Amino acid sequence: MAPRKLILYVAGQTPKSLAAIANLERICAEHLPGQYDGEVIDLRKNPKLAREHSIVAIPTLVRELPVPLRKLIGDLSDTHKVLVNLSIGDGA
Amino acid sequence: MTATSPSEKDRLIADLRHRLAEAEETLRAIRENEVDALVMRGPIADEVFTIGGDCESYRAFMETMEPGAVALDAAGRILYTNSAFEQLLGKDFAGLQGQFLLDVLPADTVREIKLLLADARATRKSCEVHFPRAGDGELDLYFVAAAIPLRLGTISGHAVTFADVTERVYREGLEQSELAARAVIDSANEAVLVCDRNGIITHANAASSIIYEGDRVGQAFADIIPLDFHGTSGVLHPDDMIAMVVAGTPLQGIEATAVNAPKVKDYLVSAAPLRVAGGWISGAVVTMVDLSHRKAAEERQQLLMRELAHRVKNSLAMVAAISARTASTVSTVKEFQAVFSGRIQALAATHNLLLGNAWSSLGLGEIVKSELTPYIDDAAGNVTIDGLNMAVAPRAAIAFGLIVHELTTNAVKYGSLSQKGGRITLREIGGNNGKSDPLVVEWRESGGPPVAPLERKGFGHTVITRSLQYGRGGGAELDFDPAGLVCRISIPPEELS
Q1: Choosing among A40, A41, A56, which should be mutated to test the B contact, i.e. which has the most B CBs within 10 A?
Q2: pTM
Q3: CA angle, B310 then B312 then B313, to 5°
Q4: Which CATH class is domain A4-91?
Q5: What is the CATH number of domain B330-495?
Q6: Which value does ipTM take for this structure?
Q7: Does the N terminus or the C terminus of chain B have fewer Cβ atoms within 10 A?
Q8: What is the C-alpha separation between B312 and B304, in angstroms, rounded?
Q9: Which CATH fold would you assign to the domain B12-164?
């Protein structure tokens, strides 16, 4: 299976950052178990990491792999929208 | 401008569309409140700023705080205040927003707050500030002001809180005052008792044990220290005293008898209202001064007055008798003046000695020296006093002094002191065994002209022989020995001390 990687950019413990982390964990566990490597990057601790994916708004979920790269902004509370975005261009 | 192939153009357009879609998605997400932080390009590095909800949570948090709280921008302008801070300054938020904090604070606090903000650039700092109140009866307020650097979205500044510590400051002040008052009360020599409004003793110094030896604190004053205000004709009762003082009427210096006091019973009682913060009377302070010394002094003075009157009367009677008897034995006024003043001086000499000795007993040798001094020259050594260490009571001292005076003037005129080489010896020759017999003092002259018995007994003879006869075995006898006059003076044993 092709490598799959998700990166969630958050800003410390803002309410939407905390909600995004919780929603992503829930969606992955319920709908995509074992399919993605996930990483959470706190831009408060390391703001310069925002440049790599040109992050402006937080929280933002980046599907780094498989290409094409996809971004989803918000707290990921809409499961359907998350699943749709993660499956675009996914040949799996 | 370089030429671009159709396929490259398509790729560029696709990329631009993708970036436009991403930018639109970002704007939509921000507009629809799906994000709560933004990454911004800073002058040095990228920075993350929270938006929206954070400020609201800060505000909600500030509102729940009991201390007054204010958020300031970097210039010290008020961004937000909680209602506690608004109440503290007596202004609403509309009147405070955008004002410089230093402009709205009491003038006395400006310097401290300015220093505090300058000091709190990196970490939390605090200081105590004082809000003076202008109104009558309004207590000044005290606060601990704390400042901490604050970031509100893209704005940096300070969060400042004002925690009211007025009660603590006043409580500490009161505690200090109470400690000082207790020290004063405890160091007082007088009995001091502090009562509450119900007359229950709340504090009693050590000196008050003279009135009531048991545990005084917690007891009703009127129960353990019943007072009899005899001077008030029964108008004032001890039960009323505390109530009267608590109502605001002080009581000053009223004599009273502490009926149940173990030792001293006479006191001078004063009581004053105990005023605490705000002038409220919380009880009474009762001071009781021991009057026993004053009473004793008054009694002693009365006794002395009576004694003085008695002595003056006796002295005047004595002077009248000396005057009458002297007048009957002299032939000229000049002679009378000389003899009479000599006798009065003899009396005065003994009186002086007695006064110098608080009118107590006098030594016989001391009396002899006092009477002989005007007539003899110490250097000549013609008077020998052997012993005479015994002291006698005032009455015997006066009589003995008069006898010695008469013997001395006689010796100067006719006896051993009338010529050179004459001598007088005084000594105790016995008696006074165990103080039950009279003490006999011998006056013996020698070296003078031959002595012959008296042809006529004058007043001097009477003074010598009778002055001490008032007491048991007292008196004097004269022996006209041709070699020199001898006089044996017997002093009654009850006069010896």
Answers
A1: A56
A2: 0.41
A3: 65
A4: alpha beta
A5: 3.30.565.10
A6: 0.91
A7: N
A8: 12
A9: Beta-Lactamase (3.30.450)
